[in-house]
Design a protein that fits this description.
This is Mov34/MPN/PAD-1 family protein. It comes from Salarchaeum japonicum. The chain is 18% helix and 30% strand. It has 159 residues and is of the alpha/beta class. The chain has one domain: Cytidine Deaminase, domain 2 (3-Layer(aba) Sandwich), CATH 3.40.140. Strand 6, helix 2 (98-104) and strand 7 (109-114) form a beta-alpha-beta unit.
Length: 159
C-alpha cells in the first residue's frame, strides 16, 4: 500500500551499509546525507516482520559542507519505502547533534557514520535520537532495475 502504516525497521543490508560508508569516505571532509529506503524482510528471504534498509537515495539538490548537510525535503519520496536518514559526521562523533535530533522525528531510523568510515564507525538512532539496535543482514539486494518495473494496474492498486 502506498501509505500503509510504518513497519518496524529490523536491519540494514550489509552491502547498503558498505555503500554508505564508502560514499561518506568519498565525500569527506564534507558531510554525506542520504535517505534510507526499505524492503520487507520477507521479500529478502529473512524470517522477520519488518523492513530491512536496502537503498540509500541521494536527493537532488543536497548541499554539504564540513559542518552540515541539507536536502530538499520536498524532493524526498513520500511513500512507505522511505524509512530513515543516513549522514556522516566528518569529525567522527557518533552522537546526534541538536540539528540532527530536530530532523529525526519524521522516520523510525537514522544512521550516523563517522570518520574513518570503517565497518564499525556507525550508530543507529530512533525518532527521539536515542540509540537503537540495527542488525546487519547479508542478503541479496533487489535488482535496481526492478524499481521501474510496474504497470498501470500496479499504480491503480496502490491508489
Amino acid at each position: 500500500m502506498l501509505f500503509r502504516s510504518r513497519r518496524e525497521v529490523v536491519g540494514i543490508a550489509a552491502d547498503t551499509l558498505s555503500f554508505a560508508l564508502s560514499a561518506a569516505a568519498d565525500t569527506h571532509p564534507d558531510e554525506y546525507l542520504g535517505v534510507l529506503r526499505g524492503t520487507p524482510a520477507s521479500d529478502l528471504g529473512v524470517d522477520a516482520d519488518g523492513d530491512i534498509v536496502t537503498d540509500v537515495l541521494v536527493v537532488p539538490g543536497t548541499e554539504s559542507s564540513p559542518v552540515q548537510a541539507t536536502l530538499q525535503s520536498n524532493l524526498v519520496p513520500n511513500d512507505s519505502h522511505t524509512i530513515g536518514s543516513i549522514h556522516s559526521h566528518p569529525n567522527g562523533v557518533l552522537e546526534p547533534s541538536a540539528a540532527d535530533r530536530s530532523m529525526f522525528g519524521k522516520w523510525p531510523v537514522h544512521v550516523i557514520m563517522g570518520a574513518p568510515y570503517e565497518s564499525d564507525c556507525w550508530r543507529s538512532f530512533d525518532r527521539e535520537g536515542e540509540p537503537r539496535s540495527l542488525d546487519v543482514f547479508d542478503v541479496d539486494l533487489p535488482d535496481p532495475e526492478s524499481f521501474f518495473d510496474f504497470t498501470q494496474a500496479d499504480i491503480d492498486e496502490e491508489l
